[in-house]
């Protein structure tokens, strides 16, 4: 599957389709497009536009990731593990340390226990992301699996 077809498939035809399978090319071309679009939007400097973009891509990204995992024989709902941990991390740790814009130094340091927990949480997230990258780059199951026939190449 080429770049344009993959992006069109993930954003329109299978926007919220969690069933079936997605080839490596479909998934990774879509990820590349999302990263490029995200970088361009970030360069515009609008947090509101970045937030809207992230929310708009949540469903198709989850759907494509789910189908990609299913293509490798893994349950699609696993895609919500790293997504959920990322959300939990943002909710609990995202705004905990306020930085002084003039010095770049923290205004109020969190306690040692909180810093250790944040570090441990970060290590767990890193391990999970590495495992998921490994899974998402694996070849497709040959032939039909429990999630359906192989995707078109």
UniProtKB/TrEMBL annotation:
<feature type="transmembrane region" description="Helical">
    <location>
        <begin position="115"/>
        <end position="136"/>
    </location>
</feature>
<feature type="transmembrane region" description="Helical">
    <location>
        <begin position="77"/>
        <end position="95"/>
    </location>
</feature>
<keyword id="KW-0812">Transmembrane</keyword>
<protein>
    <submittedName>
        <fullName>DUF805 domain-containing protein</fullName>
    </submittedName>
</protein>
<keyword id="KW-0472">Membrane</keyword>
<keyword id="KW-1133">Transmembrane helix</keyword>
<dbReference type="Pfam" id="PF05656">
    <property type="entry name" value="DUF805"/>
</dbReference>
<dbReference type="InterPro" id="IPR008523">
    <property type="entry name" value="DUF805"/>
</dbReference>
<dbReference type="GO" id="GO:0005886">
    <property type="term" value="C:plasma membrane"/>
</dbReference>
<feature type="transmembrane region" description="Helical">
    <location>
        <begin position="27"/>
        <end position="57"/>
    </location>
</feature>
